[in-house]
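Example with several molecule types.
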Amino acid sequence: MSDMSGLRYVYAVCRPFEAPLQAELTGVAGNPPKLLRHGDLVAVVSAVPEGDFAEEPLRRHLEDLDWLSDTARAHEKVIAALTTVTSPLPLRLATVFRDDSGVRTMMEDEGERLHTALERIAGRVEWGVKVYVDPEKSAPQSPAAEPKAKPATGRDYLRRKRAEHERQETTWERAENFARRLHEHLSRHAQATRLHPPQNPVLSRAPGRNVLNAAYLVDRSHSEEFVELVDRTKDEEPGLRVELTGPWAAYSFSSLDDYGQRAAEGEYDQGARGAYEGEDRR
Amino acid sequence: MTVVERREIALVDLLDRLLAGGVVITGDITLRIADVDLVRIDLNALISSVNKQVPSPWPETLPEDLPRALPEVS
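Resulting structure tokens for the full complex:
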């Protein structure tokens, strides 16, 4: 690795593994990822040019959606490849060190906490579950919704407006109850859960409003079962859409610090933006 | 329900994980660019720049203090 020039981009830290990485695999900036072993840990790194990844250019790049998108996809490609051979502990996007020795020092200093985190996610994957509501489609058919003719009087108009408003209220309530029930149900089949903030519809371009954006840490061996659980919610509520993504590497469960600090209730709370819920129930 | 297959991962799903997940390492030998707050600020800047380019599909809600600025109807 001493022949690599430039900075070091670190994708993940893993336990040592036997299987080779795909020969053709390239990472961020088009360079192939290499394994850098230090004790019982392996960092997956690739060389990146200083002109793009030093602090200043990186700060600029992070505000460029195309650059961010390419970099995020390249990062995920490496993590996805690792996921086929081990349970990698992914690092935050754009974690860069000056050189190999910087990466080794990090593994030395953080060794114990990295091992703890690796143990927590060993043999597990993350599944993402989102619930969307489309108020138009989910509104139950009521006579008040049908007349399209102009209201005859101001009072008619107000009455119609109020009926519309009440219908929307019910829709949100229904959506929220459904999301809460689904989250509680799925939490019982996961080792840990995490709620991400609902997604910005402008960025996601997804129709409807995102009311649940959750991540579940699930044993690989129970994943099929978990997917079936989600699949069974398919026709439960008209107008609500459930989306499943994964399996992901355990991105949402990789914190070295605040994991398991919260009580194990796993209570659904839209205010708990990105906070860990529940403890590891091994 | 739509079970999304892994054809193309949506960028937002990826960013949820890459910008809010993953191990944050801040040692003094790092360039300190994995700093959470920095990334969060940049993402906000990003979202607002996207918002400017793509008009919102529904009318913006008025800021709460706006009605007070309107002339009073006597």
